[in-house]
Amino acid sequence: MTAEYKVDGAIAVITLNNPPVNGLGLATRRGVVEGLRQALADKAVKAIVITGAGKAFSGGADITEFGKEDAYREPHLISVIQQLDLSTKPVIAAIHSVCMGGGLELALGCHYRIAAPGTSVALPEVKLGLLPGAGGTQRLPRVLGVEAALNMIVSGEAVMSEMLAMLPGQKLFNKMSASAETLLAEAKALALEVADARPLPRVRDLSCKHPQGEAYFEFAATMVQGMSKNFPAPLRCLEAVKNATTKKFDDGMMAEREAFMQLMMTPESRSLRHLFMAERAASKIPDVPGDTPVREIRTVGVIGAGTMGGGISMNFLNAGIPVTILETKQEALDRGVATIRKNYEAQVRKGKLSEQKYEQRMSLLSTTLNYGDLKNADLIIEAVFEELGVKEQVFKQLDEVARPGAILASNTSTLDVDKIAAFTKRPQDVVGMHFFSPANVMKLLEVVRGKATAKDVLATVMKVAKKIKKTAVVSGVCDGFIGNRMIEQYSRQAGFLLDEGASPQQVDKAIEKFGFAMGPFRMGDLAGNDIGWAIRKRRHVEQPDMKYSASADRLCELGRFGQKTGAGWYDYVPGNRDAIPSEVVAKMIDEHRKSLGLTPRKISDEEIVQRLVYALVNEGAQILEDGIASKSGDIDMVYLTGYGFPLWRGGPMHYAGEVGLFNVVQAMGRFAQNPNDDAKFWQPAPLLAKLAAEGKQFS
Ligand code: 3HC
Ligand code: NAI
User: Fold this and answer.
1) Which CA distances in Å does 549 have to 494, 523, 613?
2) Could you name the domain of life of the organism this protein comes from (predicted)?
3) Which of 237, 281, 450, 457 is deepest in the core (most CB within 10 A)?
């Protein structure tokens, strides 16, 4: 059992002990019930304290149990909480560190609660596409008031215990302990104090009302609906809290349970739960043990103060790590620093950053034209022009000056990290750190593992990524790494769709309706169509049999590189980023179709979405097959955090599983029949074909 039972004089202590965060799995639930049984049977015991071992009171229901048989085995969490509620001896929850989800619901089923300062308190179920399913929606409003409880339940955000303790009239905590260290002793003292108190206070007996009643909930529903249009859970949370004010406690509980079970079956919740697990799994590299010693990163060097170098530097400054930027010319340094200042100043103006923090961050920044000034840096990230010759110069100089053991990283988006590593005499210390633009905003970091990259270098970079709040995903070396290699296939399909009869705006609208933040053509205009043009020119030489629609080349030949030239797939008015359908482009596409002898046909939005998304899926499957990504969840994380794939669909590989891999493969067979498409590409990757035939999924 994963709950311990001990008696200390007149007090029994039940300690949840299910690392890492005392998730309330079956064995733990059984442990609590068994502890309670023993305490009630022991005449010497007058009161019971429940607490958690290690770094949490409890992180809630055991997420790893979801979907498995144990989750449905008695005692359910609701039954456990009912037992506590009905206990004839007082039960005191001693809360510390983390008290979330089912953990908070368990505490709310106790008669008294004492919390240590610094405890993160939350009902975060909504972030998993659920609602609190063990009484949280009925009990929290009774102790915090409707509005504070609704805010916590609908946002899922954690609030510090000391903040909650200050809410006027709150009944969540009977007491705050002086510190985490004194919590247990203070909980026992409280237990002795209340040992003979009767009747025992129960949260379920408290009344729950909002002075504006229906009107308040109508207003709140409009707000919640506006903020969560693709997610069903937030509104269900609201309905449940409303029930707490209108229904009897037991009826409210029943409705909550029903909503919980229904939400558990929704694709949105499956996606969000997948995202939670995939995000944590991404930081684990199969052959790099979790206890691999890491190198210390106290100072960082950045080579190049351009678009990427500036953004990369800001990440470290934000995390309190000093940065030295190196450039070839003083003007370039001045320009780079001015951009960093401008970005911070915009944050200060919007009230997102205090003047003091701004100054603090800028004081950590220094600049140089001299490689010698990087001799003490622990991590040096290169972000110079995307030319192998320039990278060679830089890495050779770094090899001369960097201290032994310093990590040398390249932000290259297309070049071979192994070749870059070979410019040094220490390829084991070289790694790719592929940030996405704007680098100070985008969450994704592809960590590119060269064939010689040392394990402790990888472990260090993964740790650093966490420190600068990035989602790091490891990719092997290949053209485009995970994300751009896949997007190329997606873009190719977008081009073929134009040839066959779709307009840029139809393609964009269809995929944006599916949930992508931006369609491929609007995205091209934002990033610069010339980037893809350069890649295709290279491809025409390296892989002459790779087929592309020539419409994108024609567009670039017209000088329409996108927003930066005021025209791309769309027209733009100066000072405005709105994409206006372009007659020039329509004419260009029409001429291009004629040159191919193609008669435009009506293409459904469904076909557009399938061809774009399944292109990602097939290339993703090949990436897994090639060992470039070690798990399908990593690919999903790349797309969710770097490419605007809709969160509620869980990433391309997860989504393919939702559709059914069999159906995906069938659709690919149909696309292969299209003479304008690339039949060879639509041969399912062997892994995809195998899983589809076995009725399995990627994860
Ligand atoms: N069950 C099982 N494992 C959990 C867990 C949970 N509820 N919460 C976290 N973990 C695991 C993580 O998977 C991770 O495992 P790993 O080390 O093997 O990767 C480990 O705990 C540490 O997690 P983090 O990396 O996230 O560590 P942090 O210290 O940054 O955060 C946390 C800890 C605040 C607890 C965070 O993990 C979190 O927010 N967890 C989710 C809590 C949650 O959503 N609870 C609600 C569950 S649903 C529920 O209770 C239903 C009920 O209403 C009926
Ligand atoms: P940029 O042109 O904005 O900046 C490059 C900077 O490097 C310039 O300031 C230049 O003066 C400096 N530089 C050139 N040679 C140098 C040298 N030998 N020593 C020191 N400084 C030197 O380019 P950007 O966009 O910042 O790209 C940099 C790298 O990041 C490239 O490898 C690119 O492929 C990669 N990248 C770019 C992304 C983007 O969206 N811009 C996204 C991800 C990666």
Assistant:
1) 9, 17, 18
2) Bacteria
3) 237
Q: Does residue 541 have a pLDDT over 90?
A: no
Going across the sheet that includes 112-115, the strands are 3-8, 11-16, 47-52, 91-95, 112-115, 175-176
Q: At what angle do helices 26-41 and 77-86 cross, to 10 degrees?
A: 20
Intra-chain end-to-end CA distance of the chain, in Å: 29
Report the amino acid identity of residue 22: N
Q: Which atom of ligand 1 is nearest to the CA of 284?
A: 19
Contacts of 250 (CB under 8 A, 6+ apart): none
Closest C-alpha to ligand 1, atom 38: 59
How far apart, in whole angstroms, are the C-alpha atoms of residue 123 and residue 226? 21
Helices (DSSP H) in 468-579: which residue ranges? 481-500, 504-514, 520-527, 529-542, 551-557
Type of residue at 652: P
Residue 670 alpha carbon to ligand 2 centre in Å: 42
Q: Which helix (H) or strand (E) holds 98?
A: strand 98-100
Provide the residue type at 252 as one letter. Answer: G
User: Contact at 8 Å (CB) between 303 and 381?
Assistant: yes
Query: What CATH fold (topology level) applies to the domain 3-265?
Result: 2-enoyl-CoA Hydratase; Chain A, domain 1 (3.90.226)
Question: Tokens 């949105």 sit at which residue?
Answer: 268
Atom of ligand 2 nearest to the CA of 336: 9
Determine the residue of 17, 63, 279 to mutate for testing ligand 1's pocket, defined as the one with the most ligand atoms within 8 A of the Cβ atom.
63
Check pocket membership of 106 for ligand 1, CB cut-off 6 A.
no
Residue 410 in contact with ligand 2 by CB distance below 6 A: no
Are the C-beta atoms of 260 and 232 separated by less than 8 Å?
Answer: no
| Cα(100)–Cα(132) distance, integer angstroms | 10
Give the pLDDT confidence score for residue 584 in this predicted structure: 97
Q: Map out the domains of the chain as residue ranges.
A: 3-265, 300-477, 483-694
Ligand 1 in contact with 101 (CB < 6 A)?
yes
How far are the Cα atoms of 60, 82, 176, 495 from residue 113, in angstroms, in the given order? 16, 16, 9, 61
d(CA 74, CA 130): 21
Tens of pLDDT along 543-588? 888 899 999 999 999 999 999 999 999 999 998 989 999 999 999 9
Report CA-CA distances (Å) from 330 to 305, 333, 338, 369, 385: 10, 5, 12, 7, 17
With 90 as the cut, is the pLDDT of residue 317 above it? yes
Does 309 contact ligand 2 (Cβ within 6 A)? yes
- Residue 286, number of CB atoms within 10 A of its CB: 8
Exposure string over 594-613, b if 16+ CB within 10 A, otherwise e: eeeeeeeeebeeebbbbbbb
20 lines ligand 1 (CB under 6 A): yes
- Mutate which of 303, 307, 419 for ligand 2? The one with the most ligand atoms within 8 Å of its CB, which is 307
Separation of 47 CA from ligand 1 center, angstroms? 30
Whether 645 contacts 672, CB under 8 Å: no
- Decide if 311 contacts 438 (C-beta within 8 A): yes
Task: Considering the domain delimited by 483-694, tell me its CATH architecture.
Answer: Orthogonal Bundle (1.10)
CATH (one of 3.40.50.880, 3.40.50.720, 3.30.70.260, 3.90.1150.10) for 300-477? 3.40.50.720
Adjacency order of strands within the sheet including 159-160: 98-100, 120-122, 159-160
Local confidence band at 538 (pLDDT 50, 70, 90 cut-offs): confident
Q: Answer yes or no: is the C-beta of 386 below 6 A from any ligand 2 atom.
A: yes
| pLDDT value at 8 more than 80 | yes
3-state secondary structure of 285: strand
